[in-house]
Amino acid sequence: MMTMQESPEMAAATDSLAQEAITLAAKLLSQSLESETAEEKKDAVKLAAMMEDPAGKELTFHLTDRILRAPEPKRAAQLFRALLQSYGAPRYLSGPDRLLMKLGAEVSRFLPTVVMPAITERLRRESRKVILPAEEKELTLHIERRKAEQAQVNLNLLGEAVLSEEEANKRLEQNLSALLEKTTNYLSVKLSALFSQINLTAYEDTRRELSARLRLLYQAAQTQQPPAFVNLDMEEYRDLHLTLDVFQEVLAEPEFFKLRAGIVLQAYLPDAFPLQQELTEWAKKRVDEGGAPIKVRLVKGANLAMEKVDAELHHWELAPYDNKADVDANYKRMLHYACKPENARAVNLGVASHNLFDLSYAMVLRKKNGVENAVEIEMLEGMAAPQCPSGSRGSRQDSLLLPRGQRCRLRGRHCLPDPASGREHHRRKLPP
Ligand SMILES: Cc1cc2nc3c(=O)[nH]c(=O)nc-3n(C[C@H](O)[C@H](O)[C@H](O)COP(=O)(O)OP(=O)(O)OC[C@H]3O[C@@H](n4cnc5c(N)ncnc54)[C@H](O)[C@@H]3O)c2cc1C
């Protein structure tokens, strides 16, 4: 914790914060273990086994990502066999399951229309806690169920960058109708899913086209009362400046002056902190002039592997830091900056992590700075449900996000009992 200190007093203050965070993290962990259900325990054991099986983990990731989205059984069967051949049957599965998988691959050569739906169904069942079905009917049912539980849904269509304008338009239509039909009041999108022809050498044209599409989403968001929340997710480093430019350009338009919208910053990028400062200055001016605050979701960054490939392919310097300690230090630096009351009023913060220490650190810091209502905790539901810190430690807004499939995120379920009061905070209704 000494890396970003300017004086011994500051070092001592940060060390004491760290100590408090460690104590809180330990408390949260032990309470979560106590309140863990048998099913959650079983899931955790399975997840841990998968994490210890790198090839099995990769295979599962690709199966879920690609097979579920394969257009037809024959193509899905080819993909399935190719993946199984590359990675082998996962070690973390039971013997009978491994055997079934191999058998399925063989039979899929002759009967893809019989085997692949069965495999897809099994994949859906296995991943149902983290990825929800995209089909209209099932999604609507799910969302209605969550609404009845007073939870909010953050809709995030899964999938890689779109490759055609047809696909981009389809995604845009889906997102627009989710907002217009009020299926969700919290939508996450990424630039690469909005436009298939992102070209940084035609920067102005690309920016104009993306702005036009984001404008449609913001307009649709404003048809709800209160307006829905639209978040721009962040992916590759090369889209960072473009995403920020489009975000600021559209939000600066008079019709969106009162709209609160969000963007993600990735702390694994050394560029992220200076950009956070610029964005904060911009947002402060906006708020001083009567505009709505914006929200930044602070993450570490999920694209390290691709950034490495990109850097090696092009002989570029690696865009992210090349070690975890620097990433963690930058995360804290950005957290401290964001939690200053004068910044948090203009840039609300979502602390998105599954690192219990970082979450506890943020909770201690926001309380110390009195910015509980501007700083919320965000976790992916299904990844660490029992560890979700209770919002009652300060913020009204702590949330779980549930990827669904294509993907949606659900906010506000399975929170821990509050360590202070012992009260539970399941299924709270949370503002976006
Ligand atoms: C609600 C939610 C929303 C998210 N949205 C996004 C998003 O829009 N965009 C996005 O990119 N990510 C997103 N993420 C994922 C996030 O960026 C992290 O990848 C993930 O949360 C793991 O980080 P951690 O703090 O939970 O865990 P930790 O284990 O503390 O940190 C793991 C992270 O540290 C970094 N890291 C680890 N080893 C190295 C190394 N050797 N060199 C450099 N860096 C290293 C990586 O960023 C890695 O993901 C989101 C996460 C959550 C919970």
Describe the structure.
- This protein has 432 residues and is of the alpha/beta class.
- The chain folds into 2 domains: 40-126, no CATH class; 136-411, TIM Barrel (Alpha-Beta Barrel).
- It is 52% helix and 10% strand.
- It has 16 helices and 9 strands.
- The protein has helices at residues 8-35, 38-51, 54-67, 73-87, 95-108, 112-126, 136-148, 165-180, 191-194, 203-221, 240-251, 272-288, 304-314, 324-338, 341-344, 356-369, and strands at 152-155, 186-190, 229-233, 262-266, 294-299, 347-352, 375-380, 399-401, 408-411.
- It has a 9-stranded mixed β-sheet with strand order 8-7-6-5-4-3-2-1-9.
- Strand 3, helix 11 and strand 4 form a beta-alpha-beta unit.
- Helix 4 (73-87) packs across helix 6 and helix 5 (95-108) runs antiparallel to helix 6.
- The radius of gyration is 22 Å and the shape is globular.
- The two termini are 32 Å apart.
- Residues 390-396 and 400-432 have low confidence and may be disordered.
- The chain binds flavin-adenine dinucleotide (FAD).
- Flavin-adenine dinucleotide (FAD) binds at residues 233-234, 264, 266, 268, 299-304, 320-324, 327, 352-355, 358, 378-380, 401.
